[in-house]
Amino acid sequence: MEAITGRQAKTAVVTGGARGIGRAIAERLLHDGCRVLIFDIDRHTGTRTASELDESGRAVFYHVDVGNEASVKAAFEDMRGNGHDPIDVVVNNAGIPQSFGDPIHRLDIARWNLYLAVNLTSVVLTARYAHALFREGRGVIVNIASTRFHQPDRNSFTHTASKGGMVSLTHSLAVGLGPNIRVNCVSPGWVSTRDDLPMLKDQPRHPAGREGRPEDIASLVSWLVSDQAGSVTGQNFIA
Ligand SMILES: NC(=O)c1ccc[n+]([C@@H]2O[C@H](COP(=O)([O-])OP(=O)(O)OC[C@H]3O[C@@H](n4cnc5c(N)ncnc54)[C@H](O)[C@@H]3O)[C@@H](O)[C@H]2O)c1
How many A from CA of 122 to the centre of ligand 1? Predict the structure, then answer.
């Protein structure tokens, strides 16, 4: 895809880029010609991923807890202070995996608050602190939600609420930040992030004949951040 190459190289922040879907997104955006800043709470894996993906330094790791305002603010301020290029793209991918929790009368409110902070408030925090750093005030935000936002499993209140909030917030941010900043959402269904765990028994349930792969999500993100999607904003794509 012509996506991002040509003209000036773009800079993309990918949260949760140390592994899984986020790593595939980081790899794809690097392939498209971007510099990629990986924001992740896992220092060990994040550092290794950045060096594995690009030894020439186009992939840079930042140790960030995206659910913590001070941590997000410090990362963006550090970028500014170090004279990094302006940013063009933010992909909000970091998330806590779905867990099957207690029934509502035993809901752990501390856990609820943690989920909302990492899966939802993080989207507000990155938008807030990236805002001043977008190149000439223009940019693209992509949020990675989940089909669980409208197809919940039993007792998965925290996950469903956080991902549903992310889809709604996508519309709200698109309206609030447009027209110069486009905001879209990708809601993956089942995505195998480990080659050694093929979900063979689930294959017939998928009309496409297989579950998703991280590269599928990365391709869609690549298109959404490209100029080819220049009129697309406020949308949620099931993948
Ligand atoms: N894999 C799936 O089937 C699937 C399906 C639907 C949606 N999703 C969503 O896609 C995204 C990525 O999923 P995945 O399967 O690759 O997950 P994963 O658990 O493999 O990776 C998540 C990454 O986010 C990072 N992270 C977690 N908390 C963080 C924090 N507070 N601050 C910074 N980084 C943090 C982790 O360290 C990790 O690198 C998630 O938001 C998930 O909800 C995944």
Answer: 13
